[in-house]
């Protein structure tokens, strides 16, 4: 049983289940289904997919994650950010005139590939990828795509056919078609949006999207919105499609894989951030590697049932916690509730007006702009705020898919910027006290006569060797004439590569020409092995390699007089 439980976390998750929890799980599951229904129908429109695919993406993935996901409380489903990246990938793929597959087939294939990437990353223990896009960069990126989502609703809320792409084009096209706006559609959308904001401001016990969907559908039935020219959802199949593997026929594999990789990185990164944000409330420990299994299973299930990529859902998880869901049964009940909706309420969903869904998407887009997080980033680190703005500009200026590339590039540049200029400090001793202290931070510390100890804080790698070499040479040039030893405190140097080893060879020669001996102290094992292979340890000599700075100090005291 234990071996089976390791592959199916649901079994271990239900161990110790109490019958009194069932009521809470059923209530939470029904609430999840109710809250998830509006977004399930609305989100597919972002990618040009039929509304039923959103329902499929809210059923099969829930079951798969309940079976294979590690969290008892996390709920997966359609996500606005992931959908926007999916829309950009689909737009790129369908720019190829030779592509004959349907959008639903390609979306399902992308879900399958994203699921496969999740499982491959799980096998390689690459959960660390969840932190590759930092929180500030993701915050900026989602703020950017939220503006793209807002502009994308112009056609839905006005009844116009908008052909322009980008952020500015649709706005100018709207200004040129003001006379053609369908006023009943616009009035309905504005009213729905106002209702959503009122529900949020006054903290309605019933979520705003549910109120809007129920009220808009009721009014549509009473006043026949379709006859008034207001667009409606239309027919929705009364059952889920049969399980099938999407066909690759006629689809170019390379752009498909690249698109899936972009979706994987964004959806997994945002999904783990969502999981961690809720972990403080649930007390669950978030293991990104285990979450890869759950997300992988959820996406493969989505693909097999004709849906699209999914990730952790903030709103559905929040409802689960609010109502008091205790286990994965809440997710299974939610899936059953949405399945019943498809089977029994298809005619009711058919007359749901599109402008109301546009209002829901516009409100969702605004919620993606986390102004609190941006303000916090500004207070904590102006540099990270700049990178958040760069990530925001990507989707706005270059499109969502290029925005992913910009976000990744911004992350790499940020990492390089933090690593290219390692800090360093000269160390000295405080009379009457043991140990070494940074001279610039300890006013009582004094340099040891004849001995210079320099602490370098950061890895020595190919992209910062020139900077470090320049600083070391400058320090040597400014040494007092009686300096005999220059010792590098390597305790804060976790890595040294071959380029850095060559640089240290050159610096040692530079010091030798000036009558100064180079020493190294507190080398990490990997760094020591690298320098041994490069021959530097042999050049320096074992007596100048020290286990600690104190050992260095005592060796130097034996080599000559010390003034302290």
List keywords for this structure.
SLC26A/SulP_fam, SulP family inorganic anion transporter, 6-stranded mixed beta sheet, 2 domains, mainly alpha, SLC26A/SulP_dom, membrane, Transcription Regulator spoIIAA, transmembrane, 564 residues
Model description:
This protein is mainly alpha-helical. The protein has 2 domains: 19-135 and 187-368, no CATH class; 423-559, Transcription Regulator spoIIAA (2-Layer Sandwich). The chain has 26 helices and 8 strands. The chain has helices at residues 2-7, 9-13, 21-42, 51-56, 60-68, 80-93, 103-123, 135-152, 154-158, 169-176, 183-201, 208-223, 253-282, 288-304, 314-323, 329-344, 346-350, 354-368, 371-380, 382-398, 400-420, 465-477, 498-513, 525-534, 536-540, 549-559; strands at 76-77, 311-312, 423-428, 437-438, 451-457, 485-489, 517-521, 545-546. It has a 6-stranded mixed β-sheet with strand order 4-3-5-6-7-8. It has a two-stranded antiparallel ribbon with strand order 1-2. A hairpin with an 8-residue loop joins strand 3 and strand 4. Helix 8 runs antiparallel to helix 21 and helix 20 (382-398) packs antiparallel against helix 21. The longest helix is centred in the middle third of the chain and has 30 residues, at 253-282. It is elongated. The termini are far apart. The model has no long low-confidence stretch (mean pLDDT 88). It comes from Ensifer oleiphilus. One of its GO terms (cellular component) is membrane. It is found in: Membrane.
């Amino acid at each position: 049983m234990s071996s089976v439980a390791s592959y199916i976390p649901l079994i271990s998750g239900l161990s110790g289940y109490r019958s009194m929890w069932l009521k809470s799980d059923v209530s939470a599951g029904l609430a999840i289904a109710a809250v998830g229904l509006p977004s399930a129908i609305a989100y597919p429109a972002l990618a040009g997919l039929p509304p039923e695919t959103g329902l499929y993406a809210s059923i099969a993935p829930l079951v798969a994650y309940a079976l294979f996901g590690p969290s008892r409380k996390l709920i997966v489903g359609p996500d606005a950010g992931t959908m926007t990246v999916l829309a950009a990938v689909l737009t790129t793929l369908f720019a190829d005139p030779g592509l004959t597959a349907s959008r639903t087939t390609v979306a399902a294939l992308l879900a399958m590939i994203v699921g496969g990437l999740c499982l491959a990353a799980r096998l390689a223990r690459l959960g660390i990828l969840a932190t590759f896009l930092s929180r500030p960069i993701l915050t900026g990126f989602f703020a950017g795509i939220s503006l793209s989502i807002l502009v994308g609703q112009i056609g839905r809320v006005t009844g116009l056919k908008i052909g322009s792409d980008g952020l500015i084009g649709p706005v100018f096209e709207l200004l040129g078609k003001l006379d053609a706006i369908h006023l009943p559609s616009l009035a309905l959308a504005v009213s729905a949006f106002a209702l959503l904001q009122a529900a949020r401001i006054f903290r309605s016990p019933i979520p705003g999207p549910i109120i809007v969907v129920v009220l808009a559908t009721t009014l549509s039935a009473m006043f026949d919105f379709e006859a008034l020219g207001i667009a409606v959802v239309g027919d929705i199949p009364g059952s889920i499609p049969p399980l099938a593997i999407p066909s690759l026929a006629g689809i170019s594999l390379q752009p498909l894989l690249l698109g899936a990789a972009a979706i994987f990185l964004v959806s997994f990164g945002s999904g783990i951030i969502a999981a961690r944000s809720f972990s403080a409330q649930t007390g669950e420990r978030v293991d990104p590697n285990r979450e890869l299994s759950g997300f992988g299973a959820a996406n493969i299930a989505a693909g097999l049932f004709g849906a699209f990529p999914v990730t952790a859902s903030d709103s559905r998880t929040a409802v689960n916690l609010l109502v008091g869901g205790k286990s994965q049964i809440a997710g299974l009940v939610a899936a059953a509730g949405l399945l019943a909706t498809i089977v029994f309420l298809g005619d009711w969903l058919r007359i749901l007006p599109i402008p109301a869904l546009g209002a829901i998407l516009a409100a969702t887009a605004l919620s993606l702009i986390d102004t609190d997080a941006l303000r916090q980033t500004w207070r904590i680190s102006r540099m990270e705020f700049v990178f958040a703005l760069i990530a925001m500009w990507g989707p706005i200026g270059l499109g969502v898919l290029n925005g992913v590339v910009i976000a990744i590039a911004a992350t790499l540049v940020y990492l390089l910027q933090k690593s290219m200029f390692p800090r360093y400090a000269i160390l000295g001793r405080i009379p009457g006290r043991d140990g070494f202290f940074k001279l610039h931070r300890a006013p009582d510390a004094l340099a040891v006569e004849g001995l210079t100890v320099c602490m370098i804080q950061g890895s020595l790698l190919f992209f910062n060797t020139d900077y470090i070499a320049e600083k070391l040479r400058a320090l040597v040039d400014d040494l007092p004439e009686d300096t005999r030893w220059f010792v590098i405190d390597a305790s804060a140097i976790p890595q040294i590569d071959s380029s850095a080893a060559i640089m240290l060879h050159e610096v040692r020669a530079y010091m030798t020409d000036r009558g100064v001996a180079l020493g190294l102290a507190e080398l990490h094992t990997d760094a020591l092995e690298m320098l041994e292979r490069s021959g530097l340890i042999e050049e320096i000599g074992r007596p100048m390699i020290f286990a600690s700075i104190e050992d260095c100090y005592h060796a130097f005291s034996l080599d000559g007089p010390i003034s302290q």
